[in-house]
Write a structure and sequence with these properties.
Layout lengths: L5 H26 L1 H8 L5 H17 L1 H14 L2 H20 L4 H4 L1 H30 L6 H29 L5 H18 L6 H18 L5 H6 L8 H11 L1 H19 L5 H25 L5 H25 L3 H13 L8 H5 L4 H34 L4 H25 L7
Helix pairs in contact: 1-5, 1-7, 1-8, 1-9, 3-7, 3-18, 4-5, 4-7, 4-18, 5-7, 5-9, 7-8, 7-18, 8-14, 12-18, 12-19, 13-14, 13-16, 13-18, 14-16, 15-16, 15-19
């Protein structure tokens, strides 16, 4: 695949499967929220219910920045491999708790707090998961195969989301016990954790560790190596403009995701009176569109430079987003809403397939921490602003209130993309990270 050797191919397979399993577990609750929120949270009026839905969704992402700092430290000091094993284990534990958790009717508000804590644990573990896996492949595989290999992880995320939706659809359609979904999630997470113990540490991290050992050896023997000290890898600093650019670009995908799956899902419930089973089924179709989109861009990135792909995706996304309120005001059936959902997801301007291009502009021993923290902060901030903001903005301005959130995020994405284009143009040569 993409000219990879056997060891690289095995690494891609293990990490892709693990990422699939991790996000399968993470998304089970999100896509069954229309059903599970009624079981774990008190019944309220429509406005309060919307706020509770936003809270349940955002709880997954609020403490992700803390998880990013924790796993960033582990990843930058202990290695990439150990991080992805730990995160998968945490995910299996939280799924196991939710599979056995009594409902609100049985234990009251305790159920709400426990499920929220489990969602926080899942959010934190998924944070270390995706960053660790992307960095592992970015530091292992050469250009141009690297672009497609790292983009394949985004495809695995989408596949995990789709599988979670598929299972949720089966559970709700056939009246099966919803706990089966979480038992399945816990089981496959354990399998993923065991499989990842077979990975080797990345060459870049191992080499950087070796160079630190060499420096310590010089110090112990009182050998003056001024040049080595001045140029040593651990003294590299992070460009704050580059961190900001990555943050701005990372804000785009959560906006598109929330709109397509959660906001439109609520419209299906309130405007078209669809049942939970019907909403889950329609979102499952949207997830299949997302899979097709990512698979297409995985293969295109092997032939077309990823930054060019992002520019095209951004152009189409802008057209859809700016006309989105008009279409929402004139949509008369769930099918037309499905078309809008699918369009947003297919052309969503995220970081894939250019992720590895962005990562190479961060120093090795600060890379995991900065990248994961930027990723986590963008998700936490965007989801909170979007989830709670849209409740009030759409009440006051109707569907046009969506643009108050969407337009600034699009502008930020454009500025971030322009920054990385400048970095590429000014670089004298491109070195693999």
């Amino acid at each position: 695949m993409f000219g990879l050797n056997r060891e690289q191919g095995e690494s891609v397979a293990l990490l892709s499967i693990g990422t699939f399993l991790e996000y399968f577990d993470l998304m089970i609750y999100i896509h069954m929220a229309v059903l599970l929120n009624e079981l774990f949270f008190p019944k309220t009026d429509a406005h309060t219910a919307a706020l509770l839905t936003a809270f349940a969704f955002c709880s997954t992402y609020l403490l992700r920045p803390i998880g990013a700092l924790a796993f960033g430290y582990i990843g930058d000091h202990m290695g990439r491999k150990v991080t992805v094993v730990i995160t998968t284990t945490m995910m299996s534990f939280s799924c196991l708790v939710m599979a056995n958790l009594p409902t609100f009717a049985q234990i009251g508000i305790t159920a709400s707090w426990v499920v929220t804590i489990c969602r926080i644990i899942q959010g934190m573990s998924s944070m270390g998961e995706i960053s660790g896996a992307q960095l592992y492949l970015s530091e292992t595989i050469q250009i141009p195969a690297r672009y497609s290999a790292v983009a394949l992880l985004a495809f695995s995320v989408a596949l995990g989301t789709s599988a979670a939706l598929g299972l949720a659809s089966i559970v709700t359609s056939f009246g099966l016990n919803w706990r089966l979904a979480f038992w399945a999630g816990a089981t496959i997470a354990v399998v993923g954790a065991v499989a990842r113990t077979k990975l080797r540490e990345t060459p870049d991290f191992a080499d950087a560790k070796r160079r630190i050992s060499l420096k310590d050896s010089f110090a112990e023997n009182n050998i003056d190596k001024k040049e080595l000290k001045e140029n040593f890898i651990e003294r590299e600093k992070v460009n704050q403009k580059t961190s900001l650019a990555l943050f701005l670009m990372d804000c785009m995908w959560p906006l598109c995701f929330y709109f397509a799956y959660v906001y439109c899902g609520n419209l299906l419930k309130t405007s078209f009176k669809l049942t939970a089973e019907q909403i889950i089924h329609q979102n499952f179709i949207v997830s299949l569109v997302q899979i097709a989109s990512l698979l297409l861009f995985v293969f295109l990135s092997y032939k077309i430079y990823p930054l060019i792909i992002l520019k095209v995706k951004l152009f189409v996304s802008l057209i859809i987003i700016l006309t989105c309120p008009y279409w929402l005001d004139h949509i008369t059936s769930p099918f037309y809403l499905l078309l809008l959902q699918s369009s947003i997801i297919f052309f969503a301007a995220d970081a894939a397939p250019a992720t590895s291009i962005f990562y190479r502009h961060f120093p090795v021993f600060k890379r995991f921490t900065y990248i994961s923290f930027t990723y986590a902060l963008s998700r936490a901030l965007t989801y909170v602003v979007t989830a709670f903001g849209l409740v009030y903005l759409t009440e006051k301005f109707g569907n046009w209130g969506i643009l108050i959130v969407m337009v600034p995020v699009c502008i930020g994405y454009m500025l971030g993309l322009r920054h990385f284009e400048k970095l590429d143009k000014t670089a004298t040569q491109i070195k693999p990270i």
